[in-house]
Amino acid sequence: MIALALASVWTWAILLDKSFFFASLNRRSEQFLKTFRNSSTLDEAYAKVQNEKNHPLINIFKSGMEELRLSLTPGAAAHPELRAHVEDRTRTAMEITEAAESQRLGAGMGVLASIGSVSPFVGLFGTVWGIMNAFIGIANTQTTNLAVVAPGIAEALMATAIGLVAAIPAVIFYNKFARQIGDFNNRMNGFVGEFQTVLSRYLDHKV
Which Pfam families does the UniProt record give (predicted)? Predict the structure, then answer.
């Protein structure tokens, strides 16, 4: 029961951490996208966020810009063959960063999944064990007096209750954050496509 109580506390700690994390994440995402879309060039947008870090969209953008600068010499013309290589390399660099950021977003989800799936069975095991001890107590005392066995049975049932208290929030929070992670993954993927569109226009001026 102590382990189940700790699992419940852990679940709520993850809830608070993830809630604040996603609130900050979405707020900074809106700020970055506004900066990106209001910039006249990719270089201008890069200069504005160059010193920022620890945000998925910014990290994806910076990886694309760094690969662009490595692949295309400033002032150089982007002939068709080079252009294709630049676009492929920047997309690959951004997708690698996107995959890493997606994995980072999922931190703690495995804990919620484990608590949600295991806690009811742990609680049920505690209940079965407690009821077994209650029946053993009945046999030892050779009495069916409810006052003798009630405390043991009540404690056994409490194990199931605590298991459900730990499991139900874990399942709810897992589903909630899974949806948010999925939504943000779509947002990152959409940004990669948006960057490629802007990059294509950028390279048009380099031809």
Answer: MotA_ExbB
Q: Contact 57/188 with Cβ under 8 angstroms?
A: yes
- Tell me the H-state helices in 39-55: 42-49
User: Closest Cα to residue 130, out of 90, 57, 6, 138?
Assistant: 138
User: What's the domain count of the chain?
Assistant: 1
Q: Which residue has the higher pLDDT, 163 or 35?
A: 35
The answer to whether the CB of 126 falls within 8 A of the CB of 145 is no
CA distance 26 to 39: 20
pLDDT in tens, 62-107: 999 999 888 876 655 556 677 788 889 999 999 999 999 999 998 8
- φ, ψ at 145 (rounded to 5°): -60, 125
| Structure token digits, residue 181 | 């992670």
Amino acid letter at 50? Q
- CA gap 68, 65 in Å, rounded: 5
Q: What number is the average pLDDT over the span 21-35?
A: 92
Range of the domain at 171: 2-204
pLDDT of residue 206: 61
Contacts made by residues 114-121, CB under 8 angstroms, sequence distance 24+: 115/7, 115/10, 115/11, 115/166, 115/167, 115/170, 116/167, 116/168, 116/170, 116/171, 116/174, 117/167, 119/4, 119/7, 119/163, 119/164, 119/166, 119/167, 119/170, 120/160, 120/163, 120/164, 120/167, 121/163
